[in-house]
Write a sequence for this structure.
């Protein structure tokens, strides 16, 4: 499968340019990260949108309009510098829900794409024609493979797919889903069946998410957790019993067992590990949607980085009981925090504490040494109904997004004060210099590169770099 | 796609440290926390013996999202009244003085390990 993935904010800007009141054809060049898929296809994740003026998209010799040599050189060189793929986009103003590449479009690709592969040095180059609510294109790969673009995925409050409109949408009318199909139709059910959802953390909140995703009929669920069940978990983990606590069953095994009980047709991946490890992070990069249900700063950092680097929608959930030093309860609240491209991220919202990250990175000995004031370790309260409230809020955001019913405000962060029964919504603003979602060159936004995730390096790699550095020092000393 | 390399941020930070402290930096590898770095010939205040020590620290694998903290002086002892930010510890099998200097408003987009090490060096020269 070949996919072009673009944040809804960037797509809105592109669409406004492509479909102007003059009803003429307009063009743009997009620069995109490249994610090779396990099925042999490629995901192109749009990082930069370069709107072309009429001078850069003049009347063509062979087709109606063509890209100017100057624009191709300018944006092509930037693609090479930034190690990004180039995507040529233009509008078919008369097209609505169906569109296709014209003979002129294909001829232009044949004339230009081999040169663009050379200029950019990228693995792929792509050409796409947009209708008002459709898209068709093709992807040329460096290895000589040439294939159709299956769809354009718009990642926003709603998860939307633009196709060429030639294929009938799939429908799912299984009897077990009869009541919910009456809400979102057999196409909505088919959409859920076609989705791969990742849940990071299979504890109190995560196990509820997983159970509900299975009841909704999501087609594939990947579960990440490194922990085992203990007796004190039994008040909160769905599907866990006394026997699991005695046997210290892995939380991922309980989660997948629970999914199979609910619906054996669902494919499950039990990933027994820490999301901070690159091997584990790599296992969720082909998910359509991610949930984060752990309470560490490290997991927040990595999940947030995955969401912004690979343009995968993420929802972080949490439930918190804050106490005063006297022991009196100060606040009880639940949090639902969607993370979408260019809509602010957990780092922009100040929700990734650098000092907490450092503590989590330290060894047990270092943590003991750093706690020289002897502050006792505090075990936070955790109650299943609070977890359920956060999980339900997140699942409804996901469901509305998946079936295309989300209002734009649903993408806001939402805190619900449990005792007061009130909700506070916050619109997070992207920091221009944010390392994950900002627009500056060093930002990792949409670069789709596993190397750029803040994961633990492998031991072998750390040793090799150490050796290289020592050899370099030795060489310098010998020279001096 | 391979995962068998150090994060680019770490490699860049190591390069900046080597450039700033040329000839005084030694690098070890760590399997869990990050890269252990040793800075030689750090000038210490009068009550340290000897007056030149080694400053050690861990560059965490998720730098610059996580800052460097704390630092360790190895091979020098301290006399006189205690200082709250200095504690004797055993660290990685070595007797060391832990230097608990923390940049509380750390901003990964602006702050660098080189800036922090320079500040720590200045502080040690006066303490």
């Amino acid at each position: 499968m070949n996919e072009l993935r673009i944040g809804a904010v960037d797509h809105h800007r592109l669409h406004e340019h492509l479909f102007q009141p003059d009803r003429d054809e307009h063009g743009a060049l997009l620069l995109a990260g490249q994610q090779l898929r396990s099925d042999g296809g490629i995901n192109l994740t749009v990082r930069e949108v370069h709107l072309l003026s009429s001078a850069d998209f003049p009347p063509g010799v062979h087709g109606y309009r063509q890209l100017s040599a100057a624009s191709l050189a300018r944006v092509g060189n930037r693609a090479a510098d930034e190690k990004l793929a180039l995507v040529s986009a233009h509008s078919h103003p008369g097209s609505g829900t169906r569109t296709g590449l014209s003979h002129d479009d294909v001829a232009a690709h044949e004339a230009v794409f081999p040169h663009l592969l050379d200029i950019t040095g990228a693995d792929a180059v792509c050409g796409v024609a947009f209708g008002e609510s459709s898209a068709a294109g093709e992807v040329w790969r460096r290895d000589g493979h040439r294939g159709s673009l299956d769809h354009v995925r718009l990642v926003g409050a709603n998860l939307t797919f633009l196709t060429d409109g030639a294929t009938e949408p799939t429908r799912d009318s299984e009897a077990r889903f009869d009541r919910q199909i009456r809400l979102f139709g057999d196409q909505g059910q088919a959409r859920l069946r076609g989705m791969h959802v990742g849940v990071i953390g299979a504890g109190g909140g995560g196990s509820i998410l997983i159970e509900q995703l299975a009841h909704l009929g999501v087609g594939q669920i990947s579960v990440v957790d490194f922990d085992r069940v203990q007796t004190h978990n039994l008040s909160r983990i769905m599907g866990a019993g006394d026997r699991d606590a005695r046997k210290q069953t892995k939380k991922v095994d309980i989660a997948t067992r629970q999914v199979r009980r609910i619906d054996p047709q669902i494919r499950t991946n039990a990933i027994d590990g820490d999301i901070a490890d690159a091997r584990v992070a790599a296992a969720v990069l082909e998910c359509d949607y991610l949930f984060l249900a752990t309470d560490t700063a490290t997991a927040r950092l990595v999940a947030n980085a995955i969401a912004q680097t690979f343009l995968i929608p993420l929802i972080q959930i949490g439930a918190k009981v804050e106490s005063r030093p006297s022991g009196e309860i100060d606040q009880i609240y639940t949090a639902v925090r969607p993370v979408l491209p260019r809509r602010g991220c957990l780092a922009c919202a100040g929700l990734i504490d650098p000092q907490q990250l450092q503590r989590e990175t330290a060894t047990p000995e270092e943590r003991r040494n750093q706690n020289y004031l002897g502050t006792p370790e505090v075990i936070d309260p955790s109650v299943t109904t609070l977890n359920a409230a956060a999980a339900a809020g997140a699942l409804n955001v996901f469901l509305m997004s998946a079936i295309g019913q989300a209002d734009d405000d649903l993408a806001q962060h939402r805190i619900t004060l449990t005792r007061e029964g009130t909700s506070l919504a916050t619109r997070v603003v992207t920091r221009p210099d944010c390392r994950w979602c900002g627009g500056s060159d060093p930002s990792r936004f949409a670069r789709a590169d596993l190397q750029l995730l803040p994961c633990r390096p492998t031991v072998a790699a750390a040793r090799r770099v150490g050796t290289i550095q020592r050899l370099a020092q030795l060489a310098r000393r010998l020279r001096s | 796609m391979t995962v068998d390399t150090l994060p680019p941020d770490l490699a860049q930070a190591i390069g900046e440290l080597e450039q700033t402290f040329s000839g005084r930096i030694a690098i070890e590898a760590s399997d869990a926390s990050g890269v252990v770095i040793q800075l030689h010939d750090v000038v210490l205040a009068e009550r340290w013996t000897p007056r030149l020590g080694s400053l050690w620290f861990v560059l965490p694998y998720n730098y610059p999202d996580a800052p460097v903290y704390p630092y360790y002086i190895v091979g020098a002892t301290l006399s006189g009244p205690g200082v709250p930010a200095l504690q004797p510890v055993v660290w990685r099998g070595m007797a060391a003085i832990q230097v608990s200097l923390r940049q509380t408003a750390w901003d990964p987009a602006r702050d660098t390990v080189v800036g922090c090490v320079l500040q720590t060096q200045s502080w040690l020269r006066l303490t």
In short: The helical segments of chain B are 8-20, 113-126. Chain B has one domain: 3-126. Residues 113-126 of chain B form the longest helix (14 residues).
